Amino acid sequence: MFEQIDLKKHQLDAKRPLSKYTVQSLREKLFLEWTYNSNAIEGNTLTINETKVVLEGITVGGKTMREHLEVINHRDAISYVEDIVRKEEPFSEWQIKNLHRLVLKGIDDGYAGVYRDQQVFISGAIHTPPPPFKIQEQMDALMSWYDGEAQNLHPIVRGAMLHAIFVGIHPFIDGNGRTSRLLLNLELMKSGYPPIIIRVENRLAYYNALDKAHTTEDYTDFVELVAKEVEASLDLYLSAV
C-alpha cells in the first residue's frame, strides 16, 4: 500500500531543504484548509474565505463567537503541534490534554483539557463510546499501545490508528474530532510528512470508515483513506519543488 507513498516521500526528502518562501506558502495553504475543513466537519458554517479573514483578525458578520473561536483556537493548536515537532518532544497524555485545552479555549473552559464525566453518543454512529469511569483505563491502554506495538507500524498506520482509537474513546465532552485530526497530523509531521486534510466533502466516507474501525476493529478502510490524503499532500509539495 505504501510503496508509492514512500517513494514520493523519499523524492521530497531528497529536495530538502526547500525554499523558505515555498515552505511558508505551502504551510499557509495547508493550514488554512486544515482549519477550515476540520471545523466544517463539526458544523462550523464559516466558508474557507471567511476562515482566512478570521485568521487575519477580522470579524465576520452574522457568524457566532463560537465559530470565530473555533478558527482562532485551531490555529493556536496547530502552532502547538509545530512546537512539539520542532522540539522533538515524546508523545504524552499531557500533550493530548493541552491540545484539547487549546481547541475548547473560551468555548467551554470548564471542560477544556478535562475528561468527560458524562456519557456521550456519536451522532449517526453504531459505536458507543465508553462510560466516563472507563475513560482513564482506555487512555492508559492507548498510551501503552503507542509506546509499544505502535512503534513497529508504518507512520501512516500509526497515525491513523491513533486518531481512530482516540476518537473511539471520545474522552472529552466536545472537541474530540478536531483533537483527533490534530493528533493524526502530529504523528505524520513527526515522521517528516506534510499535514493532511480530511475534507468536509469526504465526511461520510470518513465517518463510515471510523465506525467500521470501532465496531469491527478493522482499520483498513480508515488507513486507506488517510494514506490517500498523505499522497495528495506529498503531490502538492512535489509539484511546488
Automatic annotation (TrEMBL):
Keyword hit for Transport: no
Keyword flag ATP-binding: yes
Signal sequence range: none
Name of this chain's protein: Fic family protein
Sites marked Important for autoinhibition of adenylyltransferase activity: 42
Keywords, sorted A to Z: ATP-binding, Nucleotide-binding
Binding positions for ATP per the UniProt entry: 174-181, 206-207
List of catalytic residues: 170
Organism encoding this protein: Psychrobacillus vulpis
Recorded GO MF terms: ATP binding
Boundaries of every Fido domain copy: 91-228
Source taxon at top rank: Bacteria
PANTHER family attached to this UniProt entry: FIDO DOMAIN-CONTAINING PROTEIN, FIDO DOMAIN-CONTAINING PROTEIN DDB_G0283145
